[in-house]
Amino acid sequence: MHDERYADLGLLERYCERIGVRTEDYKTLFVSSPNDELLKTDLFKEYLDKFSNDTRAKKIKTKRITAKYTEDMRSLELQNYIINCIKECEKDKLYFFLLALSNPQPVVIVKSPSKTTDIKKFLGYEWSSSKGNEGIKYIGANEVDEDNELERNKGISQIKTPLFDPSDLHNEEKINMLIRHNFLGEELCIAKNYEEYVSVNNLVDLMDFSRIEFDKVIKTSISKKIEIQSKYELLKLKDVASIRKGQSITASECKEGNVKVVAGGVNYACLHNQANRDANVITISASGANAGFVNFWKEPIFASDCTTIVGKNDIATLFIYNYLKGIQNQIYYLQKGSAQPHVYPKDIEQIPIPNVPDNIKKQIVEECNKIDEEYNNAINQINILKQKIDDIILPSFNKYEHKKLELLCSSFEYGTSSKSSSIGKVAVLRMCNIQDGKIVWDDVVYSNDKNDIEQYMLHKNDVLFNRTNSPVHVGKSAMYLGDRPAIFAGYLIRVNYKKDLLNPKYLTYILNSKPIREHGFSVMSKSINQANISAGLLKQYEIPLPSMELQKEIVAQIEIYETEIDKAQKIINSYSEKKNVILDKYLK
Predict the structure, then answer these.
(1) Quick check: 360 pLDDT over 90?
(2) Are the C-beta atoms of residues 133 and 151 closer than 8 Å to each other?
């Protein structure tokens, strides 16, 4: 084929760029004579492997040689069969690439969040299986002081969701209007707060042309390419390591033992009585929300829903592990599928990795091991310190008289039910802002409502109780330190303690203690993935009540340990950054 006769050469070049081959090499396939350079590419090596070993190829290979059917004739038949199969596959892929590329209409993709609580907010409803109250429960705009908000919020007219506004279907702030504008061919402008849900893509970018199996599936996310910068030559991971798929096993099939079964999570799933991988092995979770998570196991394991990676020796394996952890976020790019994301071994094989000399690998591993040691020591220290805090708090339950909170507090206040915004005058603390007994200022929303600011303004040493959340989070409490002006949302309760009877820090420690959290779990009302402890239930809590002087002593002892916990936590928080500094120093 001559270039001057090929008016669409530019389109062919774009396709070749997409599948990672040179255009001149690809054109040799058109005349059924693919050159060596083309056949050496990863894609075409996969083609050769597939079609030279399928049923038809095996039949050709076993044909009997006769005077009329020579060895050369058999080789030529096999070669022609393989090339024709490749041409048919590529013909189909190229055709659909050109169709998709010529489509001028953008594709709007709307994706829901992955966390259950976020999904409910996104959809505006949840499913209740409470006896006598089954079915869809719309989550309305307003919360009320009564215990069961969902019962009050029936009717789609009250639904609150970013998807649409039931009272104004032409509300430009809702996602349905983006879909409408796209359908009408109008210009799209995605608000910043919807960027995590909505994306606009070209159809051609939503189809995978890089594989030998072309399923014509339109994906809901664009595959991002792992980009690596290094002064060393880049190889593929499969060139420097053994990569193997795990072996399927269910919990019911596991036999009693102490071998960890590594599946799709960030930790092991269960125990078994035998291993299928030796010690010092890397795993990459294969499916689920954590698909792509990189881990390292010093002991033998049973590899299940994961892919395992082992280098040529232990130093090489540890180098690969530290390198992969350094690009962990990019490895998540390999996820395919929306309902159940997967990361496949074939994609892992293609991860680029610098070809580092052995002596440099050793240096990297030695320096990273020191960071690992610091990290592990910090975790162990935190566990020890938390146990020491328990050793201070728990005896209080047997030492001192118990009193109901309603006798020790003047009132229990629900927070504001008004809608918050991404900007405003005063921060609004929500249930997500209570973590590990402290107020955190991540993911803060704001209020401009003058009345709310006046009524719900927090004061230094106010104690907040998380009344509604998933069961594991309901009951978590924190003391507001007055860091910055803030009010509190309706899913929190302000516990207005009597200052002559309760020290606010002591109250916070007690509310977060194991006995009180366990009691809360036993009395909370539950629906699917949602639980509630009302103010009525909270005021019935019985807590140990030492004198104010003893409360201050208990708090002072705990604060010493908390200071040490904060120091250890800083080491943990800097773990990834320190390792990346080491990798950058040697690899870039």
Answers:
(1) yes
(2) yes
The helix (H) or strand (E) run that includes residue 126 is: strand 125-128
Q: Model confidence over 15-41: pLDDT tens digits?
A: 998 888 999 999 999 899 999 999 988
Q: In what order do the strands lie in the sheet with 281-285?
A: 241-245, 306-311, 281-285, 294-297
- Could you tell me if 182 and 134 lie in one domain? yes
Q: Are 113 and 122 in contact (CB under 8 A)?
A: yes
Between the two ends of the chain, the Cα-to-Cα distance in Å is: 43
Residue that is written with structure tokens 């079915």 in the block:
135
- Are 154 and 137 contacting, i.e. CB atoms less than 8 angstroms apart? yes
Range of the domain at 174: 109-205
User: Is the backbone of residue 249 left (phi > 0), alpha (psi -120 to 50) or beta?
Assistant: beta
CATH of the domain at 282: 3.90.220.20
Q: Which residues pair with 308 in a beta bridge?
A: 244, 283
Contact 265, 341 (CB under 8 A): no
Domain shared by 344 and 249, yes or no: yes
Instruction: Among 356, 372, 389, give the residue marking a domain's end.
Output: 356
Q: Which two tokens stand for residue 292?
A: 């792509």
- Do 269 and 347 share a structural domain? yes
Number of structural domains the chain divides into: 4
Model-level pTM?
0.62
For the record, the structure tokens of 289 come out as: 């929300």
